[in-house]
Amino acid sequence: MQENNTLRNGITVVTAFFPIGRTDWETFTRSDDTYFNYFERWARLHNDLIVFTIPQYAERVEQIRQNLGRTNTIVHAVEDYRKIDKELLERMTQVCRTYAPFSMFPDKPEPSKPYYNYVIALKYWCMKEAAKEACTDKLAWIDFGFDHGGVDYKNLDDYDFEWNYPFEKPVTFFQNHELGDDPIFEIVRRTDTYFQGKFICYTNFAEEFYQDIRSHYISLIRCGLVDDDQTPPIMCVRERPDIYHCLPSGWFSMLYDYSDVKQPKHTPEMEPEFLKVGIVLRLAWAKRCLKTLWREFKYQVKRYPL
Question: What would be one Pfam family of this protein (predicted)?
Fold first, then answer.
């Protein structure tokens, strides 16, 4: 990467892979090799790339980029990612012990897996650190397992370009679901998804972005709630809409939806706040609601035994 004090117009992509043993989960399983298979596809992007991972995988990441002819890569081997923010990990662990039964989906990773939430929260720390050595005026976070092996980008050539776009605000989230005015605790309880895990941040705003996001994680935890990367960005948008901006986009399609060299495959749009679904999903949702109400009833009735 070039060495000067002037940030050029462009995007440095930032990502990380910190294994949390998903192979051993009962649901939502995914092996480390699966993640690397996903990464090897989108690693074809021509952008500067900064990667954070464990020492055992640093050389593997470097080799993938070298094999693709991408020499503009920095890989950081993090000895123990658990020590990056020990306070946050400890607090998330405590809350997951007590909060899960109050979630509508108590077996999902968000209410029950503190390491899952913690590793996702580290993406903002990675962005802050990457800003110290990036040569571009914008940073983009892309998850290591982006596009899950070809959901939106079927052909490997789809990544054979340098992604850039004139994003207008310090932080841009890619939104796939209309956001109403529900209170945060209700959004957390439903584990709703409004934003993709990918986002843009001006390089000179990365430190402030990190501080804002972390403060919202702590606010959630103080209220006995825990989440991955959904509600803290929502809190940012609601608190500082002049800084935190949202653009409509499909789950993985932002590389084409907002590009100065590519055209969107579809018109970027969000799902409505209230979804229209078929009878099977409606019945499944009704069953989920009844199970949640029954758990709530049994919990609340203990306050004043019948």
Answer: HtrL_YibB
